Amino acid sequence: MTAEEQAQQFRESFTRIRSEIQKAIVGQDEVINNVLTAIIVGGHVLLEGVPGLGKTYLVRTLGEVLDIKFSRIQFTPDLMPADIMGTNLIVETPGGGKEFRFQAGPVFANIILADEINRATPKTQSALLEAMQENSVTTGGEIRKLEQPFFVMATQNPIEMEGTYPLPEAQLDRFFFKVNVPFPSIADLANIVDRTTGAESARPQKVIERAALLEMRSFVRNVTVAPEVKNYALRLVLATHPGSEFATEKVRKFVRYGSSPRGAQTVILAAKASGMLDGRYHASFGDVAAAALPALRHRMILNFEGEAEGIRSDDILRDILESVPKTASQ
Fold it and tell me: Which of 125-129, 208-212, 236-240, 276-280 has the highest mean pLDDT?
């Protein structure tokens, strides 16, 4: 198969997945695109929004559309790490003896719905750290690899809501994108009501297998990034650091820590996927700019003044996008 045929197949597969999801999810096109972009490059996604916006339903629908193993974990304050990873149990052997046998937890799947992840304690939240970064689980001194592809799709309520625990910064950094789920427009809300209070609507169908999904992930990494575009992405990331020469006045005033190098990796990978989906074999400045908000908003830590004044990371990032020139010579 030629590169052109692979690219066409890539775009057709993405379109089919998105179309099936849109049978169940009304509106939220940007949210769906961001989630699918993260999946095809192998990244995890954190969905944030108030209850009732369809975050859980979106991930469950994704599990129906992709022909891979799906698992759901409902995070609660009393959830323990072993409830996620699994544990060694003492079982009786056929000969009458006893032995330890590993009972796998729900993390041993391809796509994990970590529902309301910030309702569990930090100890339980951090149980996913190794799985998200290393694609493995260590229990009883033994390392068990997770089957690929492996995605964590987590939902969380805004941290201002009662009964929530902020995610550790190290875990936030392991999410490829943080996607804010907005309240639907009046037209979308009317459509939601019609679909959910009338006759049963069409159910999404499985449209892509595990092997094809892995091929998409491998193919998108071959998209080229020009040195000027890569340099623009790096300067955007460095601009989130208050001590950087590229930092804006808002960053120096309101930001305590900027993005990690994972932020730069995320922006580049997302830009590659965006370029491919737009029919190009290269990432553009626009692709980089479009990826900046979901890739970096959760990787910036505001200082006390920023928190006190109610500054949002998105506002700072938009200021960076307006201030940082696309070419270093500008």
Answer: 236-240
Instruction: Report the 10 Å Cβ neighbour count for 111.
Output: 20
DSSP-derived secondary structure letter, 128: G
pLDDT of residue 270: 93
DSSP summary character for residue 144: E
Instruction: Give pLDDT tens digits for 36-64.
Output: 999 988 889 998 887 777 788 888 888 88
Report H helices in the chain: 3-22, 29-40, 55-65, 81-85, 122-125, 129-134, 169-172, 186-197, 210-220, 227-238, 249-254, 261-277, 285-296, 304-308, 313-323
Mean pLDDT value of segment 110-134:
84
Give dist(CA 253, CA 126) in Å, integer.
31
Domain spanning 223-324: which superfamily? Answer: Magnesium chelatase subunit I, C-Terminal domain (1.10.8.80)
Interstrand relation of 282-283 and 224-225 (parallel, antiparallel or unpaired): parallel
Question: Cα dist. 161→4, 48, 112, 135, 166 in Å?
Answer: 49, 12, 24, 31, 11
Burial class of residue 196, CB neighbours in 10 A (0-12, 13-18, 19+): exposed
Residue 156, amino acid: Q
Q: Do domains 1-81+107-219 and 223-324 have the same CATH topology?
A: no
pLDDT (mean) for 123-130 = 80
Per-domain residue ranges for the chain?
1-81+107-219, 223-324
The neighbour count for residue 104, using CB atoms within 10 Å, is: 13
Rounded CA-CA distance 186/86 in Å is: 44
CATH number at 1-81+107-219 = 3.40.50.300
Residue indicated by tokens 């796509």: 111
Rounded to 5 degrees, φ, ψ at 165 are: -120, 130
β-pairing, 111-115 vs 70-74, is parallel
Predicted TM-score (pTM) of this structure:
0.86
